[in-house]
Amino acid sequence: MPIYEYACRSCGAAFERRLKYEERLTAQVCPSCGHEGAVLRISAPALVGGGAASESGMGVCPTSGQPCGCGHGVRH
User: Fold this and answer.
1) Which residue of 12, 41, 43, 76 could cross-link 59, Cys pair, CB 3.0 to 4.6 Å?
2) Tell me: the pLDDT tens digits for 6-65?
């Protein structure tokens, strides 16, 4: 299940909840003040490094987005 970030409209506290996709827009209760109706925050996705491309010294092709050794003259 994804982790969603919320901000309380009453006290401004930020908190996270692990919810199903369908549940993300339901009213959430702030753990700090108990106010119901915290708003869903937009956050940057987590990028996980590693994998075959980085371990092999290959980069990611700027054209296809796939691991490659396409030789564009730049290690990417």
Assistant:
1) 76
2) 999 999 999 999 999 999 999 999 999 999 989 999 877 766 665 544 444 556 767 766
Per the listing, tokens 């396409």 go with 70
Q: Who contacts 64 (Cβ-Cβ below 8 Å, separation ≥6)?
A: none
Q: Tally Cβ neighbours within 10 Å of residue 25.
A: 10
- Tell me how far apart the alpha carbons of residues 39 and 3 are, in angstroms, rounded to a whole number: 14
Q: How far apart are CA 27 and CA 19, in angstroms?
A: 12
- Please, are residues 21 and 3 in contact by the beta-carbon 8 Å criterion? no
Strand partners, 38: none
Residue with tokens 């092709």: 61
